[in-house]
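User: For a benchmark we're assembling, each entry needs the component sequences followed by a predicted structure for the full assembly. Here are entry 17's components. Please fill in the structure.
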Amino acid sequence: MAIQEQKVLLAHGSGGKLSSALVKKYFIDKFSNPVLDQVTDSAILKADSSYIAFTTDSYVIDPVFFPGGDIGKLAVCGTVNDLAVAGASPRFLSAAFVIEEGFPLSHLEMITNSMAQTSGQAGVKIVTGDTKVVNRGKCDKIFITTTGIGVLNPRYRHISRGENIKTGDAVIINGSIGDHAIAVLGVRENIRFEEELFSDCAPLNTLIDELLEAGVGIKFMRDLTRGGLGTILAEVTENKTYGICIEEKQIPLKDVVKGACEIFGFDPLYLANEGKVMIVTDKNDAVKALSIMKKNLYGKNAMIIGEITKDFRGKAALNSVTGGKRIIDKLTGEMLPRIC
Amino acid sequence: MAIQEQKVLLAHGSGGKLSSALVKKYFIDKFSNPVLDQVTDSAILKADSSYIAFTTDSYVIDPVFFPGGDIGKLAVCGTVNDLAVAGASPRFLSAAFVIEEGFPLSHLEMITNSMAQTSGQAGVKIVTGDTKVVNRGKCDKIFITTTGIGVLNPRYRHISRGENIKTGDAVIINGSIGDHAIAVLGVRENIRFEEELFSDCAPLNTLIDELLEAGVGIKFMRDLTRGGLGTILAEVTENKTYGICIEEKQIPLKDVVKGACEIFGFDPLYLANEGKVMIVTDKNDAVKALSIMKKNLYGKNAMIIGEITKDFRGKAALNSVTGGKRIIDKLTGEMLPRIC
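Assistant: Structure for entry 17:
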């Protein structure tokens, strides 16, 4: 009798439950060391006297160009944001390209122009890179892997681990969820929305710097990419002595995104974003944080969406607009492959 | 009249002339900054008080498993070696995976086992990573991008730039060329060689450490990957006031590799290696360097292959075994796509 071989599924790349399981079994357990075992998006390293944050992501988005950005802008923003949410100041990027034979050089140029512009805006330098070309049909157009180094003030070391989170802390988001996923879906499926929708793809380090410089008591930050707000909420509370309670009516959501979710049967909580951050702050700093964020282009629609609670220990709960309450689990399966 | 669009060619990924041109036009010129503009394999960064080396490479080798290694071992060795040849001590790696839907998990496990083993051997820690899965047919099995951070003793800062190279310096190689390329070609084309051939894929940081610790006056090092010894020789001398003269008969070359080159019409000078380094040392240290290398597993067949010369200014010349002399140019076109 043949034993069916276990294979990689699309859902292994979803950023949800199966992703976590795959990463744990095949990567973390095998490469185990005290830094990796933390499983934060940025590794915090001590290089002689200073702390550096170190993060990597591969971008395989389809299509390469979408409303509000392209794979190059995305690759810079994603890595900048991973460093920024660790409390680090992004400084240097590497960029590795895998390109399909036959890819138009004019498209490559648009992508690298966009990377140059975005890295300038974010104040980071692309300092090293690599290019591989594979035969036609052996990759889909272009994949970019960006890796970032940030300098971390030891004062902010606790942020990536969230070790200072406590009951009563406020949960804030800098704007509407799901814009990236639905904008990409729109161009992929050739959908005409009633209202123009752009990906939220943006570098968030300036917004975050403004909060840190103002002395806002930030306990934790995470950018809401694959897996969306829902997966992050579930991850933050996993195995913790506290819970999170979120008010659905407080979560910014554009009508066009809401409408698309209804049509396609998506839960906006799990949609990917590329310019959204969830911030946990001391409750006494929440209003101050909100007012700082609202002055920044990327935080205009910031909202306090919930709080850290004694209840729902180890879980995230949502008070829905219709009055019900539900526990938010990590994403299972894959809603939209190749969204980043 | 339609204007034919310029497209990416396989040769743009060869590591030779077209690669240089592509990288210059689309990457370096656009992302220009003092670090990137050096165009060294590892970027040297100053993070507060210490210097760090930073390098990235994507691995797209086909097939994923080959005699002497696999894509995982290759991805660790390649990045470790890029740091080591900059004079840096490799410390931390990130690993980003793009995996094709349907890839057997057992193969992924063999690859990550191999990465764990090789990083242990090299004394580096894999501290962060990423996994993306793309639909079947949208990439070929698995691509891995490793990015490395090394700590650089300021005493060795000159090495990656080769700024202390002078006439009379010795050019040393740690063993036979072309083993990797021909071993991969063998399995790809299902060739039975008379003698078993393995890729030379290996981490070279220990070998290099031994030389540095012994105080050998190393002026320059470069690992001989895509483009081979020939391309590196041409690059090292490009726009320089000195030349290089190499003795063909001194270059270690296995009979089986030589035979395959004759059959397939390859020039071994341009074949990819994954465990070979070219070292330029002060001539007075050449014999000492050679004796240290010969004691290391990865330097047993080390040879002094030539010297830095006043002649052939800005060029590399080869004294062939048949008595002729020829100028060594960078690789043009692509000999073996997806060799690393």
